[in-house]
Design a protein that fits this description.
5-stranded mixed sheet; alpha/beta; 17 helices; Hexokinase; 17% strand; Hexokinase_C; kinase; nucleotide-binding; Phosphotransferase; binds adenosine-5'-diphosphate; 13 strands
């Protein structure tokens, strides 16, 4: 009996709160809009705050999850996938090698001629878009299309590239979807992402499917390495700079890979690698921690996404989502504080209408009247003639969201530095650590990139910062795959 009464009291209280909220929201529209939007902005800033102390907690949580994911399969939200890459390219690789990079709406094919002295003598590539119907068709249709493009690419080969007589062409396959790797040159698809949905592929060996298609299309080529883009970037980076030990992708999505000691991977039961090391694909986008500064905007974005509850870290830091977070904040300001006048601009209701490149363009607007911001609001959202104060508010929101994302990405990197023990060296013993970065977000969103680098320096301290370098490894993933085909060549 008592319980029922308590329950009723709670429901009653909730109803009163909801009614109060309605009244507040209604009233607000009639109160001073500037004050109200300033309040929403202040609240956003507070909720998104990432002081160094919080970032350290997040880095520690990342380290804990890394340990758990390495201890046992399914031990953590971090998959910590074993890549079977235990020897990264050394620079001694020689000859012509190919790569195929598939992981979005375009795929790239490329070939490199390697000198054997850490030099890529020649490089050629072609980029081909995937017709949308093939993203949701059959495996044969997709792989036949790709194999046919490979055949054309080989037919176009210039004389600079030398395949020694009697040798088969070798390919590194960058396949950036979740794969359960079975060996360096085989792995089964766990699930499609990024708009792909092809029946009869889950659980199948992607290399076997590509190989069958190459046979059908008359392409005589062997897949010598199957990797994802982080692993390719790590290999490509390492070829240029021996101190590369970590790769981070910040593009549409986000992920990281790094070199781990074999003894630190309890779940690995295979033969001990000669190098004593193994590359781990973290799949860090799926990281989650109670320390993450999540807001109402993050929560609704997640609930309404195609993969609710998954990829929470990615949804706070990666290019697919930053613009959408901005839209959600603007929507609330339009609704509750009449930021854009009496009515909410209809286009502001469309999910993903504000893309991160547009957000970046507004954030970087240095003109005195924020001309770019005005144009974007007009062109994308159909809001003409915004006052300067409104444009300033938009830039501030961009700054809060991008800053939080960049600082969290830096905390993730600190987590890897801690896990690999690099953060605990004493002066004089600190190893140089180079981090290979790739992805359109890192490459083009300068404020984000600068903030990430400054934050990492702030977190590791002055002494260690001198030994850390982030390099843009543009297209590293494709070249890296070709290099891995070389270092795992059937002729070695
Ligand atoms: P993918 O991650 O799909 O393999 P990219 O590495 O090229 O491809 O990254 C593309 C992503 O980078 C876009 O989805 C976008 O979020 C982000 N991006 C591209 N250009 C910019 C830009 N100018 N400013 C900010 N973000 C950008
Ligand atoms: Mg990519």
């Amino acid at each position: 009996m008592g319980k029922v009464i308590v329950g009723a009291a709670v429901i009653g209280a909730a109803a009163v709160c909801a009614a109060a909220a309605l009244i507040v929201r209604h009233r607000v529209r009639n109160s001073n809009p500037c004050v109200k939007s300033a309040n929403i902005l202040k609240e956003l800033e507070e909720k998104c705050a990432t002081p160094a102390s919080k970032l350290r907690q997040i880095a520690d949580a990342m380290t804990v999850e890394m340990h758990a994911g390495l201890a046992s399969e399914g031990g953590s939200k971090l998959k910590m996938l074993i890549t079977y890459v235990d020897n990264l390219p050394t620079g001694d690789e020689e000859g012509v090698f190919y790569a195929l990079d598939l992981g979005g709406t375009n795929f790239r094919v490329l070939r490199v001629q390697l000198s054997g002295k850490s030099v890529i003598e020649y490089k050629e590539f072609a980029e081909v878009s995937i017709p949308p119907h093939l993203m949701v068709g059959t495996p044969d249709a997709l792989f036949d299309y790709i194999a046919a493009e490979l055949a054309k690419f080989i037919a176009d080969e210039s004389e600079k590239f030398h395949l020694p007589p009697g040798r088969q062409r070798e390919l590194g396959f960058t396949f950036s979807f979740p794969v359960l790797q079975l060996s360096i040159d085989s792995g089964t698809l766990i699930r499609w992402t990024k708009g792909f949905s092809i029946n009869d592929m889950i659980g199948k060996d992607v290399v076997a499917e590509l190989t069958k298609a190459m046979d059908r299309q008359g392409v005589d080529m062997r897949v010598s390495a199957l990797v994802n883009d982080t692993v390719g970037t790590l290999a490509g980076g390492k070829y240029d700079n021996k101190d590369v030990a970590i790769a981070v992708i910040l593009g549409t999505g986000s992920n990281a890979a790094y070199v781990e000691r074999a003894q630190a991977i309890p779940k690995w039961h295979g033969p001990h690698p000669k190098s004593g090391e193994m590359v781990i694909n973290m799949e860090w986008g799926n990281f989650k921690s109670s320390h993450l500064p999540l807001t109402e905007y993050d929560n609704t974005l997640d609930v309404e996404s195609l993969n609710p509850g998954e990829q929470i870290f990615e949804k706070m830091i990666a290019g697919m989502y930053l613009g959408e977070l901005l839209r959600r904040v603007l929507y609330r300001m339009a609704e509750e504080a009449a930021l854009f006048g009496d009515t909410v601009p209809p286009k502001l209701k469309t999910q993903f209408i504000l893309r991160t490149p547009e957000m970046s363009a507004m954030h970087h607007d240095t003109s005195p009247d924020l001309k770019v911001v005005g144009e974007k609001l007009k062109d994308i959202l159909g809001i003409p003639d915004t006052p300067l104060s409104t444009r300033k508010t938009v830039v501030e929101i961009c700054n809060i969201i991008a800053t939080r994302g960049a600082r969290l990405a830096a905390a993730g990197i600190l987590g890897i530095l801690k896990k690999t023990g690099r953060e605990s060296f004493r002066d004089g013993e600190i190893p140089n650590t180079v981090i290979a970065m790739d992805g359109g977000l890192y490459e083009h969103y300068i404020e984000y990139r600068n903030c990430l680098e400054n934050t990492l320096n702030e977190l590791v301290g002055e002494n260690f910062a001198k030994h850390i370098k982030l390099i843009l490894s543009n297209d590293g993933s494709g070249i890296g795959a070709a290099l891995l085909a070389a270092s795992h060549s059937q002729y070695i």
